[in-house]
């Protein structure tokens, strides 16, 4: 990527769009691989340890944000709240995984929600987070909206779908490691249209009456993403 207009979208001298996409793809792969290994009866601490071991086997460089695995009622928690290490996944339950991993000097960040058992409302919740993410991404592609407009739109769409959007979760920058030196702030507070390959769109929703929610995040890019598969 060449020079960008806003300091919030600055990148380092080693930044590569191809490496950024590779980091994204490897992190999405890791989320799916870890999810396949999680079973009812496992607690959040065991799931986090499993995730770390899987990432090490995959050859990660490092973790750039803490591994988050949430089961059942803790799927309502926000990013900065601790996991509940003794919280056990039930036979009919919902969980999500959120990973921030460095691959080849670039930050991957991906998250998705999964259901064990046959609870159709939980299945609908997990699917709704993915669908809402795609709807908001389509808005970005078609209209070139500012980050703040995207989250206003997301809240309205979530309500229309029968879910509650957690507006404490507003997305963020990624880049060549470490992106934090740019002090970019949240996507939901960004006053310009986010550039491709630099921002994570995060969607976290809650069931309107039951004690659980769902989470989905991915890199905003103009190429085809897993959400469209």
Instruction: Please indicate the count of domains.
Output: 1
CATH level-four homologous superfamily name = Creatinase/methionine aminopeptidase superfamily
- Structural class by helix and strand composition: alpha+beta
Q: CA-to-CA gap between the ends?
A: 26 Å
Domain Peptidase M24: 19-174
Protein name: M24 family metallopeptidase
Plain-language structure description:
By secondary structure, the protein is α+β, with helices and mostly antiparallel strands. The chain has a single domain, classed as Creatinase/methionine aminopeptidase superfamily (Creatine Amidinohydrolase, Alpha-Beta Complex), CATH 3.90.230.10. It is 31% helix and 22% strand. It is built from 4 helices and 7 strands; from the N terminus they run ααβββααββββ. The chain has helices at residues 17-35, 44-57, 120-143, 147-161, and strands at 62-71, 93-103, 106-116, 164-165, 172-173, 199-206, 213-219. Strands 4, 5, 6 and 7 form a 4-stranded antiparallel sheet that branches. α1 crosses α2 and α3 (120-143) runs antiparallel to α4. Residues 19-174 form the Peptidase M24 domain. InterPro entries: Creatinase/aminopeptidase-like, Pept_M24, Peptidase_M24B. It comes from Paludibacterium denitrificans. This is M24 family metallopeptidase.
């Amino acid at each position: 990527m060449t020079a960008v207009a806003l300091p919030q979208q600055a990148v380092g001298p080693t930044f590569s769009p191809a490496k950024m996409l590779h980091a994204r793809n490897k992190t999405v792969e890791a989320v799916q691989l870890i999810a396949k290994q999680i079973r009812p009866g496992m607690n959040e601490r065991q799931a986090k340890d499993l995730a770390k071991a899987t990432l090490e086997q995959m050859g990660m460089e490092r973790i750039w944000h803490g591994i988050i695995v949430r089961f059942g009622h803790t799927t309502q928690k926000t990013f900065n709240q601790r996991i509940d290490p003794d919280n056990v996944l039930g036979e009919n339950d919902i969980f999500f995984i959120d990973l921030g991993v460095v691959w080849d000097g670039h930050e991957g960040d991906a998250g998705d929600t999964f259901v064990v058992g046959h609870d159709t409302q939980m299945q609908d919740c997990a699917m709704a987070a993915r669908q809402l993410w795609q709807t908001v991404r389509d808005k970005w592609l078609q209209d070139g909206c500012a980050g703040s407009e995207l989250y206003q739109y997301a809240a309205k769409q979530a309500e229309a779908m029968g879910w509650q959007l957690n507006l404490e979760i507003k997305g963020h920058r990624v880049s060549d490691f470490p992106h934090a030196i740019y002090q970019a702030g949240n996507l939901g507070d960004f006053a310009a249209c986010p550039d491709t390959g630099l921002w994570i769109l995060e969607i976290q929703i809650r069931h309107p009456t039951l004690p659980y929610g769902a989470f989905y995040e991915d890199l905003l890019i103009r190429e085809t993403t897993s959400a469209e598969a």
